[in-house]
Amino acid sequence: MPKQNTANRALRAALFMDKGGVTKTTSTAHLGEALAREYGLNVLLIDLAGKQGDLSKQFGIHDEVRAAEDDAWPNISTVFAEEWSTIAEKVPDAVEDMIWETDENVDLIPAHEGLDSVDDDLASVNVEDRYTRLDEFLTNYVDPLGYDVVLLDLPGLTNNVTLNGLFATGRVIAPLTMGEFEERQLDQLVADIDEIVAGFDVDLELAMVLPSMYDKRANVDTEMLARLREQYPDRIAPSPITSSQGVPNAQAEGRTVFAVPNDELLATAKRVKDAYTDAATALLQRVDGETATASTETN
Ligand SMILES: Nc1ncnc2c1ncn2[C@@H]1O[C@H](COP(=O)(O)OP(=O)(O)O)[C@@H](O)[C@H]1O
Ligand SMILES: [Mg+2]
Fold this sequence. Notes:
12% strand; 7 strands
């Protein structure tokens, strides 16, 4: 194995399921906050999920991001362009200027309307370069900024932007709402990952299954959770994310449940907070385990 300097590389993961409404954006934000608050890590979230800008809404900065959008060049869509490295050299602070601080503990690169055309633009790029542009951006321009963790909020469908996100992270966290359709969707994701790994010879793994909008009083939910635990014993998050009105309530105020004072927090939302914290802990442990195994193999 080639010797790699991994010391400066952030832990990367992509929140992905080939479906909308499965809590990808919510989980990106809450997992990021858990890693930043509980572990003091420097966390950067990147919104690749489309111009609606749900991640900046989640953190209550959408209006400001929107107001600045026309002047926001370069932006997250620019990093997929052939000329990106030239742009990055010529524009001072090109990357720093893309990054927004939130009122909470994570930083954010918001979506941009330019993302709309990136999938099409990439389709005409030769295959060797088509899927690696985001990886190069993270390695050459984001890692030097010293983030510990980079989480990607990916589109709820598989396109060239999605594939860039999967190639760049090598690690999928799959939020999964409770239901038969979703369960099949997860099997499909596992098959898709296998196909990508075989077809492109890249490292890509399902790092975590994150059961979400879980209701412990519903038999269908408890039964599905039991099946998932059996099928993915080392991938399943330690605690399911409870369904709680406290989540959309907090989001309507532009914050995560972590930012809601304890005395205002619904009991169910407290469980959401704890479950995301447990997921953050498990993610760090598993990545530590991988690193330990990798260095044993090298020795
Ligand atoms: N734990 C939860 N309990 C209740 N509602 C939730 C929970 N997590 C997310 N939601 C709601 O579910 C909807 C979809 O979540 P979202 O994160 O936008 O999914 P996606 O990014 O996959 O489309 C949003 O309206 C969000 O407020
Ligand atoms: Mg979303």
